[in-house]
Amino acid sequence: MSLQPEDDAVASAHQAGSSDAAAPGTRRSYLVTLAIGGGALAVVAIGVLLYWRARSQINDVALASSAKSVTVVEARASTFRPHRHYVATVEPWVQAAVGPQFIAAYVDTVLVRPGALVQRGEILATLDCRDATATQRGVAMQARAIDAKQKALANESARITSLLEGGFVAPNEAEQKLAGSESQLAELMSTQAKLAGTSLAVNDCILRAPFDGEVSSRTVDPGAFVRPGTPIVSMVDRSTVRVTAEVPEGDFSYVGQGTPVRIKMLATGQETSGAIARLAPAASDSTRTVHFEIDLPDPQRQFPVGTTADLSIDVGAPQTATVIPATAAAIRGDKAIVFVLEGDRAKKLVVPVKGEESGTLFVDPSLQPGSRVVTEGRSLLNENDRVVAELEAAAPALSPSTSVARGPTP
Question: What share of the chain has pLDDT > 90, as a percent?
């Protein structure tokens, strides 16, 4: 029984230890509750902020009632003239491929190169024709021998014929001598014809320029073996060039002889003019196109041949027109749909199209010059939409050489 106070002390100490152990758990639970509550409040605050932001960006004004931003340009008065456009070829007045015509031989020399100026009769190349030369000499000697024999027979025949009157020879003998002389004469003529053929072969060994001109190409060098028809060098005469083109049969009436034509040489960029010199009377069976040519004197030889030229031919009288950028219209067939400004409203107009040239549209003057035509923003417009317009600087006026609009191009 004397141990009871000690037991009470131990019990008291145990209770105190239990209270100290429970205190940290209570604090942790309290902190967790605070964290969850704070997170929930943060989520709610963020949601409220996002909702406010979304509501602040909602447009309560109808888009149809708001003004649309566009760019406009002022239409300008101009002149329209339709024309036809063709692609042509620049060809030399004459050209020739120079090579052997009768003989096959090795090339001995080629004396010219492309670009060389040559005169008619000037030697361009030579062939190794020793065999042909020897053959010619043999035929010439044979002809000389036959000629001498024929002359002797002719003289003998004449003497025998003179003896017929006195009865000193028989007529048969005189006739045989005359026949022998005629036979030798025929053989002589045959040999002379053969000699002429061998002379052509020998002459073919020296190739000469057939006209005054320039060497355009050299296809064979010394040492090559050539046959008849093989070109060694080619020549052109550019003192006058021919501009040739083919046109559809429907344009036959536009390309009559003497019709003026504007010409642009694509190789050099030079622009010139000429008139149609000749026109084929019939169209091609395969392409149904008509051939015509323009002669251009070129004493300075400034136009390269075998190149391309651009031809333009006017086909109508000048007409008044209104000019707008091609980007300002939607073209449907021969009509253009444009929007013009009337105050702060956009009005849709449909006007006939006359032609187009280099991004410029020529339309009927029913679109008044000075009208403000919408260029940018046109695809978003509807009839009578309200707009806010910004005036675009006008494009520079077309030069006289480009002021002719393009009509239908074949």
Answer: 34
In angstroms, the Cα distances linking 312 to 16, 80, 213, 340, 349 are 116, 14, 30, 33, 32
Task: Give percent above pLDDT 70 in the chain.
Answer: 81
Whether domain 69-81+318-391 has CATH 2.40.420.20: the reply is yes
CA atoms lying within 13 Å on the CB side of residue 340: 16
Structure token pair of residue 388: 């806010």
What length does the chain have?
410
Beta strands 360-363; 233-248: pairing state: unpaired
Q: Per DSSP, what are the bridge partners of residue 293?
A: 244, 278
Residue recorded with tokens 């758990």: 25
Per-residue pLDDT band at 310 (split at 50, 70, 90)? very high
Instruction: Tell me whether residue 89 is exposed, middle or buried, using C-beta atoms within 10 angstroms of its C-beta: 0 to 12, 13 to 18, 19 or more.
Output: middle
Residues 7-32 have a mean pLDDT of 59
What 3-state class would DSSP assign to 270? coil
DSSP-assigned beta bridge partners for residue 372? 74
Nearest to 339 by CA among 392, 379, 369: 379
Q: Where are the domains of the chain?
A: 69-81+318-391, 130-203, 234-314
Nearest to 93 by CA among 234, 278, 277, 295: 295
- Asked whether the predicted pLDDT for residue 149 surpasses 90, the reply is no
Query: 103-118: string of b/e by CB count within 10 Å (b at 16+)?
Result: bebebeebebeeebeb
Q: How confident is the model at residue 147 (pLDDT cuts 50, 70, 90)?
A: confident
Architecture of domain 234-314: Beta Barrel (2.40)
Cα-flanking dihedrals φ and ψ of residue 62, to 5°?
A: -65, 135
Q: Does residue 297 contact residue 239 with C-beta atoms inside 8 Å?
A: yes
CA–CA separation, 366 vs 352, rounded Å? 9
The string of pLDDT tens digits covering residues 118-142 is 999 999 999 988 766 656 676 677 7
Beta strands in 211-255 (DSSP E): 213-218, 225-226, 233-248
Confidence grade of residue 203 (pLDDT, cut at 50, 70, 90): confident
Question: What is the reported pLDDT for 183?
Answer: 79
Spatial CA neighbour of 72 closest among 386, 389, 338, 396:
389
Is residue 67 within 8 Å of 341, Cβ to Cβ? no
Q: Over range 71-85, report the average pLDDT.
A: 86
**Sheet architecture: strand order including 206-208:** 206-208, 123-128, 105-110, 225-226
